[in-house]
Every structure is written in C-alpha cells, then in structure tokens.
Amino acid sequence: MGIFSRDKADNDTSSEQPHEEEGSPLDEPVLLDDAVDLKGNIDFGNQANSKMSQRARPPTFSYGIEHAIQLMRELPEGELEIVVTVVKKTLESMSVTVTDIIQDAEFKEQEIQQKSDQLIQEIEDLESEISDRKMQIDALNADAKETALVKNHLKLAEQINKDEPSASPPQLDLQEDSVAASEEDLNAEALDHQSIPLNQLAATDSASKDPHTGSSQH
After folding, report:
1. pLDDT digits (tens, 9 = 90+) for 85-133
2. What is the C-alpha to C-alpha distance for residues 166 and 161, in angstroms, rounded to an integer?
3. CA atoms of 126 and 134, how far apart (whole Å)
4. β-sheet bridge partners, residue 109
5. How much is the pTM?
C-alpha cells in the first residue's frame, strides 16, 4: 500500500536469513517517534535504536494506544477493513499484541473519565464558592444601603437643629407681644373696676339729698 518504508525485498530475503537469536533487536519495543521519519513515512524495520515507551501506562505495554492513534493518523484514507487488517498484521509481525493495545485504550478511557469527573467536581466547588461570594455581596450591599439611609436621616436631623436658632427670635417676639397685650387688657379691666365705685358713690350722694331743699337729710 505504500505506507511503510520497509522494502519488499527485505521481506523476501528474511526467510533465507538464519533465525535471530534471543535478545536481538526484533525483541525490543518500538516507539512510534522512532518509526516515523521527517517525511512522515513509517518504518517498522528500524528497530535497533528503539527504546521503551515512558508514556505507556502499564509497564508491560511497549506499544500502547497512543502509538496506535498516531499510526492511524498517518495512514491514508481507504477501506477501513483493509487498513486495520494491514495494521494488525504489521503490529503482530513486530510481536505487538493488539489485545494489549485495546487494554491500554480501556485504561486510557478510565483515566480520561476520572479526570473529567475531577474537573466537573472542581467546577461544582467553584460554582458553590461563587454562589457564597454572591450571597456575601448581597448582604454587604444591603448593609451599605441601610447605613447610608440612617446616615442621611442623622444629617437631616443635624441640619434641622442648625436651622432652629434663626427661627426662635420671631417666636420670642410673638410671646412678648402676647404678654404686652395681656397686660393692656388687665389695665383696662382695672380701670373699669375703679369706675364702678365712683358711679355708685354719685348715685348714693344724690339719693341722700332732700328733694325739696336739695340739702342732705343728715
């Protein structure tokens, strides 16, 4: 399919070569980064310089789901069954078990789910804190409103007290005028009481005189 850089001639001559001894480079794990060159070609034949993947979750997986994902990205589009069949056979030729990759994928899914649940919980905690902060802000705003209202009332009372001295003198003048009027009324009543005895005295004198002689009967 033209997706691997390993020559077909190498595959034909591999059967004529003696069997590799234990500990040969073929037994070493392969990293996808080592199998992809600068041009994006994937080379599964260059295994001598490969090393153990540090990103593999279980240490027994030398070729995990991350490598498979990267491999699928590099493959050309085509019939899915043909592509996955070629990938499976290629991996098996490298002593990579597809079942291990599937298990690694399931392990990764669990990690993703746990991380997602953790983030959801953190968001809920933050939303709870935000709600508490909003309640505190509402309480502070209500306190500030009440404080401003009482302050304005006190300022109004203070202003009224300052204005009272200027208004009091006219009230005192009115009181003085009322007192003066009362004194005049009392004086007039006293004069009236004094005039009544004089009139009665004149009437008494006229009654005591003799009507014929005009002299007093005494």
Report:
1. 888 888 888 888 888 889 999 999 999 999 999 999 999 999 999 999 9
2. 10
3. 12
4. none
5. 0.41
Q: What is the DSSP string of the chain?
A: ---B-S-HHHHHHHTTSPPPPTT-GGGS---HHHHB-TTS-B-SS--TT----SS-SSTT-SS-HHHHHHHHHHSPP--HHHHHHHHHHHHHHTT--HHHHHHHHHHHHHHHHHHHHHHHHHHHHHHHHHHHHHHHHHHHHHHHHHHHHHHHHHHHHHHHHHHHHHHHHHHHHHHHHHHHHHHHHHHHHHHHHHHHHHHHHHHHHHHHB-TTT-SB--
Tell me the domain boundaries of the chain: 8-96
